[in-house]
Amino acid sequence: MKSIRFVNLILLFLLFWGLLIQHESKPFFSSVNLDTLLLSLSIILTTASGYLINNFFDFNSDAINGKNQFYFSKSHYLISYIIHVLLSFIFIFITDLSGAWIQLVFYCHSLVLFYSVFLQHIPIIGNLSVAVLCGIVVYIPHILQTGFQWNNNFNLHEANAELLVIFSMLFTLARELIKDVEDLKGDQKTNSNTIAVAFGVRTSKMLIISVFFTSFLILVYSCLMTPFTINSLCFFIPTVVITGLLIFKSFKSNSRDAFTELSKLVKIQFFTATVWLYFEVIL
What we know:
Elements: H1 6-24, H2 28-31, H3 34-57, H4 59-65, H5 74-93, H6 99-117, H7 125-146, H8 160-182, H9 184-189, H10 195-199, H11 201-225, H12 230-252, H13 256-282
């Protein structure tokens, strides 16, 4: 469970189904069908495989940074990765969904592998690739319901899926930059050329603040573009407050522990948005 970041996977699963039932405006069990359930499980397994293969290639760096808390071996990560990849394809193959979904899972696996081997060692590009993967996962429930349609306005009631995709990508990008700072010691010793290694902690910190500030501005603008309702307030008040807190704490962060706290706060932001999706359906 530790090696596949089980808590992250639960949060992703809840976010996926929250977006799905929000689109359908039905209770959870009314939204469930076998194909959709298998698709969501395939996505979860794909995400888990990404953690595992990344742990495999980051084995030495994680050992230096003290992240391999249970002393897993490299073979554990590799075997677990292969199992998760196979299961993700088995689940998607036995659905009656379009073959395009099989291609999507394949492309996601390819990008994850390419990231672990190559992209993560390229400043910004590696961080952006993870953000894009997160955005794809968050957008899938919307694709299932309406196809590839993108609403360009910032009204939360009309474009909540699109806005959540944007916020997911921005906060994931920030969290990846934060992790680069957290892993600085190990990355330096293993010659991983991340933003923190290539340009220093100060530059990384400025980029993190810039991403959070951009998120804050979009949240405020979206709030102004959204009609006043209890639903919208329940989304904007906690997310704006947490984003403001992230900006403030980013300025104050000067140690690895401080950046670890930032990373946890980003998770809380994701959790807040996920809870809101279920709350909105109830209202």
